[in-house]
From TrEMBL, chain A:
Listed PANTHER family: ABC TRANSPORTER ATP-BINDING PROTEIN, MALTODEXTRIN IMPORT ATP-BINDING PROTEIN MSMX
Enzyme class: hydrolase
Family under the similarity heading: Belongs to the ABC transporter superfamily.
Lineage: superkingdom: Bacteria
Species this protein is from: Thalassovita mediterranea
Protein's name in the database: sn-glycerol-3-phosphate import ATP-binding protein UgpC
From TrEMBL, chain B:
Membrane topology: Multi-pass membrane protein
Pfam families per record: BPD_transp_1
Coiled coil: none
Segments crossing the lipid bilayer: 29-50, 96-120, 132-153, 165-188, 209-230, 272-294
Upper lineage: Bacteria, Pseudomonadati, Pseudomonadota, Alphaproteobacteria, Rhodobacterales
Record's keyword terms, sorted: Membrane, Transmembrane, Transmembrane helix, Transport
Cross-referenced SUPFAM superfamilies: MetI-like
InterPro entries: MetI-like (IPR000515), MetI-like_sf (IPR035906)
Domain ABC transmembrane type-1 residue range list: 97-289
Species annotation: Thalassovita mediterranea
Compartments where located: Cell membrane
Gene: araQ_2
Name of protein: L-arabinose transport system permease protein AraQ
This protein's record includes keyword Transcription regulation: no
Length: 365, 304
């Protein structure tokens, strides 16, 4: 199938400042693409470029197989939901939703029918005569979505739509957006700085930093095989442990040496990786370090570590130990016997390990 | 809080607490008396004007300036409106009053509309040099009237509008644009840019967004602008006297001519009535729209 959105070699400059550098992204119909990155990484600018609200400095952009590089927003067959919702304050909810159709000269009967459909879909029928000022944040969010849905566009664009909601509502709306995506089979591009939103919603994630694409992949690929230190650190909460280590070739595998807080070293054997440089940064997610005896498998290696801090979090208990000069977090089960200041046998799952080059931050394995 | 203060009042003398209340009350009264006196001071001239305009000329000559009229007569008002002489003509203020109306109303409407459009462009459709243009317009607000008199006269001559009411309208619109643009720009700058973006994605163009989204939001600032422009243009004397000729003079110029006429007896009651008539429209505009004026001046953000 032809990609519904195809961005090739896109550059965006403001004066002499390069905001976006050589962006190449393509998505298939039905995809949920999430652009994620820290603030100022250019993700919203990229979304505005897709919408046509910002001109592109160079490169091409096509939607539905047609070149849209220089087409105005209204002719791109897109709908957009904004962070501040951007509802028209003087219009009723119904008028907000039908404004786009009115501007495009859709007949009144069709407007009415589509309004009813969308209102019942989003359960906002009882709000249609109110003004945006009389609605709560969550209700405004629904109306903003309604305004996009009613258009039935090729592409839905979301610009951090949940960041103005409180935590509980955010989770609710998140699953509702996900349901909407599944029910409609629509193609969506979604901007967020929240990596949990990215993980839960996306079929495809683009991680951006400083206007440069760091990695494109499915949530699982991004989570399990981060392309560099930035992605490893940015995606996942608590963040991936990034531990400086030394490696030695040992037969068909590698021995990894990590110094402990007291100066002694632990040595782990990785039977899969080879030809690593001597100095590496070892990346291991907190859930890939468990209490000894609770994790089995041929790649699991045990080592005794000094526990410095225990943080019970209900379902899990996090423990912190100093390894390689870094605070390393392990995710243990809730009923662990770990105590701060005591030694504990930890099980490291080397089947899940990532190696990064300390200088460039690029992935090595 | 009360728990902490209670022991204090019980321990200290109760009369002391009472004394504080008295001082407080006395200060209140002093304040109100002072404010009342100021109000009286400011209202005095108006009082004299109104009472004098209702007196006959005889009574003015014999009575005291601040006395109430013994016999209320509206003769002076009638004369001021339709009989008194400005130079050689004796038609009263009426024709000049209408001159002012047909000058002020179009000038206010045009300047407000242009200002709204300018403000909308400068605030929401940023373009290269927008700030420079806005600064230049702002600068225009501070150019003294006298400086432009001669160039303006020349320009009106070239346009064939010298001495005409349309000419005065042009002058006032040009002078008003700076202020009206400033008002609207500052108002529209508080409206989130995402609103324009949303409307663009919805398919609306430049004028559609202005009409359907921005103008309906603008009532408070429109009222402010209209009051400001109306007051300034109606009360203007310098442009009125410079760029008009017999028959096209606005009411301010006519009032001056009435009061400064040196033929015959000085009719103070007619002068007063004429002055009040000339000032009434601006007073009326403020009374009718004043509520919105305050609201508009303090309006900061647009929520929604």
């Amino acid at each position: 199938m032809a990609p519904i959105l195809d961005i090739k070699n896109l550059y965006k400059n403001y004066g002499a400042v390069e905001i976006l550098k050589d962006i190449n992204v393509a998505i298939e119909p039905g995809d949920f693409l999430v652009l994620v990155g820290p603030s100022g990484c250019g993700k919203s600018t990229l979304l505005n470029c897709i919408a046509g609200l910002e001109p592109i400095t160079s490169g091409t952009l096509s939607i539905g197989g047609q070149d849209m590089t220089h087409v105005s927003p209204k002719d791109r067959d897109i709908a957009m939901v904004f962070q501040s919702y951007a509802l028209y304050p003087t219009m009723s909810v119904a008028k907000n939703i039908t404004f786009g159709m009115k501007v495009r000269g859709v007949d009144a009967a069709t407007q009415e029918r589509k309004l009813k459909e969308v209102a019942s879909q989003l359960q906002i029928e009882q709000l249609l005569h109110r003004r945006p000022g009389q609605l709560s944040g969550g209700q405004r969010q629904r109306v903003a979505m309604g305004r996009a849905l009613v258009r039935d566009p090729k592409l839905f664009l979301f610009d951090e739509p949940l960041s103005n909601l409180d935590a509980k509502l955010r989770v609710e709306m998140r699953s509702e957006i996900k349901k909407l995506h599944q029910n409609l089979g629509a193609t969506m591009v979604y901007v967020t700085h929240d990596q949990i939103e990215a993980m839960t919603l996306a079929t495809k994630i683009v991680v951006l930093k400083g206007g440069v694409v760091q990695q494109i992949g499915t949530p699982a690929e991004i989570y399990n095989n981060p392309a560099n230190l930035f992605v490893a650190d940015f995606m996942g909460s608590p963040a991936m442990n990034l531990i400086p280590a030394k490696t030695r070739q040992n037969g068909s595998g590698t021995e990894v040496e990590i110094s402990r807080g007291d100066g002694s070293a632990i040595v782990l054997k990785d039977s899969h990786s080879r030809d690593l440089p001597e100095d590496v940064i070892l990346g291991l997610r907190p859930e890939d370090i468990a209490e000894a005896g609770f994790r089995a498998g041929q790649d699991v290696q045990q080592a005794q570590c000094m526990i410095e801090m225990v943080e019970p979090a209900g379902a899990d208990t996090f423990v912190v130990s100093e390894l390689g000069g870094k605070q390393v977090t392990a995710r243990l089960h809730a009923e662990t016997s770990a105590r701060a200041g005591a030694m504990l046998d930890l099980a490291f799952d080397l089947g899940k390990v990532s190696y990064f080059a300390p200088g460039t931050g690029e992935r090595l394995n | 809080m009360t728990d902490f203060t209670q022991p204090h009042t019980q321990a200290g003398a109760p009369s002391a607490a009472k004394g504080i209340n008295w001082t407080h009350l006395a200060l209140r009264w002093l304040l109100f008396t002072l404010l009342g006196l100021f109000a009286l001071f400011y209202l005095m001239p108006l009082f004299v004007m109104v009472t004098t305009s209702l007196k006959s000329l005889d009574e003015i000559r014999t009575g005291s300036l601040i006395a109430l009229p013994r016999e209320v007569t509206f003769d002076a008002w009638r004369t001021a409106w339709s009989g008194t002489c400005t130079g050689v003509q004796c038609e009263g203020l009426r024709p000049y009053f209408w001159n002012s109306v047909i000058m002020t109303v179009p000038a206010v409407i045009l300047a407000t509309m242009l200002g709204a459009m300018n403000g909308y462009v400068i605030a929401q459709w940023r373009f290269k040099g927008a700030n420079l243009i806005f600064s230049l317009m702002l600068f225009g607000c501070f150019i003294p009237f006298q400086v432009v008199l001669l160039p303006m006269a020349r320009m009106l001559g070239i346009m064939g509008l010298a001495g005409s009411i349309p000419g005065l309208i042009v002058v006032h619109v040009i002078y008003g644009i700076g202020f009206t643009t400033l008002f609207f720009r500052n108002y529209y700058v508080t409206i989130p840019a995402e609103l324009t973006k949303a409307a663009k994605v919805d398919g609306a163009g430049f004028f559609r967004i202005f009409w359907s989204i921005f103008l309906p939001l603008s009532l408070p600032i429109v009222v402010v602008t209209v009051i400001w422009q109306f007051t300034n243009i109606w009360n203007d004397f310098l442009f009125g006297v410079s760029f008009s000729q017999a028959g096209t003079q606005p009411v301010t110029v006519a009032l001056n001519n009435i009061v400064n006429s040196t033929t015959g007896v000085k009719e103070y009651n007619v002068d007063m009535a004429a002055a009040i008539i000339a000032a009434l429209p601006t007073l009326l505009v403020y009374v009718v729209a004043g509520k919105y004026f305050i609201r508009g001046l303090t309006a900061g953000s647009v929520k929604g």
